[in-house]
Every structure is written in C-alpha cells, then in structure tokens.
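Reopening this one. Same input as before:
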Amino acid sequence: RSFRESPPLRAFVTRKERWVQGMMGAQLAWLDEPMSSNDVRHGPSLFASTLLWLVKAGLARNRVDVCITHGGSVRGKAEYAPGPFLMSHLYAELAFPTALAIVDMPGRVLAESVRWARARPKPAPEFLHLDLNVVVDRTSHAIKSVGGKPFSESVTYRVAITRVLLEGMNTIEPLVAYVAASKLQIPAEDSCVEAKNAVVEGAVKKAWLELAGYGSKWDCNQDGTVSPQEMTAALEAVFAQLDMNKDGTLDSDELLAAFRRGARAKKGSSGSASAVSLIAQMVKALDADHDGRISIAEFTKLAVSDSTIASTDRTSKAPHRTKRATCLA
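Same output, byte for byte:
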C-alpha cells in the first residue's frame, strides 16, 4: 500500500540528512603522511597507532599512559593520502561500538600480552596496536618506552583498552590469565568510553583552544605552566572579544565569524577551516543548560573541566613523538 508523501515530514528528513552529511564531513585531524588501514592484522600500523593517539587525546582527563586496541577493531581498509581525517573516516574505521575500559595494568602483563599477540600467525585479528607515544621493537615485540620514558615491567600503567579483550575476545592468553588471577573488576560497558566519542571530544577541545588563542602568552607568571587561574582570566578576556553583540552569550554565528576572522588572519589555515565544521559539536560540548548558547560561566569551564587542559600540550609537543598527525592542524 502506498502513502502520499508528507511535505513537512520530507522537509524534516531533508534537514536531518543535511545535518548528518555536514557532520560526516567534519575534519577531526590532519594526517602528515600517507597511511593505510589495510595492514592492521599483519603487523604494526602507523594508521592504527595514529588513530589510538587521537583517541588518547580525548582521554586527557583520565591520564591514560597507553591506549590499546586489536587489529580486528579497525575495519576501514582504506588508503589515506596526506590531508584531512574526517568524521566519516572515523566511523568507517571504528564501524562497530568500541568501548574502552580504563584500568591499571602491571607492565609485565602489558609486555607479555603485546609479545604474545604480535607473534601470532598472520593475519591476526588479535594483533595489538598501541598509540604513537609507545615505542615497540618491531622484531622482538618488546616495549621500549612509554611517553618518552623507559618502559618497566615493574611499573603499573594506566591503560585504555578495548573492553572485549578483557572479557576474552581473541583469547590473548597473558591478558586473560591476568584478569582471572587478579580477579580484575572489568568496568561495566555503560561506564566505559566510546572510542569514537573520545576522538571527537579531543578535536572539539582543540577547536575551542584554537578559537581562544591558547598558548604560552597565557602563562602570566612565566613558570612554564598555564594554571587554571591564568586560563580563566584569559578566557574571560577572550569571551568579551567573541561576544560581538554584547548580550553575555556566544552563539554559533559568533563562533563562525570568529573562525572566519582567524582564517583570514592566517590566510586560510586548515585548522580554522576544520574547526568551523565542528561548531555544532563545540556548542554542545559546553552548553550545560542546552539553550544553544554559551554563557561566560560555561565558557570558562574550559579551564577546569579537564585537569590537564590547563597545562602545556604534552602529547602534541612530546619530543619522542615523530609528527604523524595533528588534531585540527
């Protein structure tokens, strides 16, 4: 049986489709060199490690040392030229829900699990990938360093790991044995972090800080760290500049105008262009009362919502990390 199309319903569907298309085109990062997600079950993958680095950037408040997933969770099978990494790419690569459990893990267990998983016959869906801040020997599969510091099996590391691996998926024997022997309480799925959400959150934070002009000039006492107090004072000054109509709030139009001014000043920088595509997510991230506008109180929460955001950007400036990708470059 056929039904006559409803013009109001069609208009609603069209608006939603355009919104989804716009979000899928949002730029989350900039890849500095060619990468591939075709080889994630065969060996170390620059793309998988870069993706995990982007996930880790969104987990700053959790102070994660190592971010881990298995080859079977990265499913895009795509080749990437240097250039933008989009929301559509993220959803193609992490096509299924990817819940990350954040647990404390002995270095010994971490080392044994990586060696075991990487030594398996290929292709291996259980092949373990680690973020860019972890250096692993490609031959022995031994972890050499974490965050620029020598790795130690006697140290306990804060690890964000695909939750299903803790439950026994792919049966990574050292990991499964540790969970059983230690009676590890695996976090409930609804308390875990969705990997895609972490990437978006990291990109949104970078976009807000770009808009605010975050940098060393905010370090008023020149002690090498931007304290929450210094950041709050700077954000209040920035808010006054962004609030063009002086109504005490920021809306999407004012944010768009600010990014366009920034793009003109920087002669069309890719960062400003990519941040524009995230404006809806930026408003959503800070809009606590859901009125579609950002108040001064909501805006200054950038200084306190994440205890690590008010310090220097340790991940992007870490001397041990070769530049591979940039959040909103």
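So the earlier flakiness isn't reproducible anymore. For the record, DSSP finds 13 helices and 15 strands in the chain.
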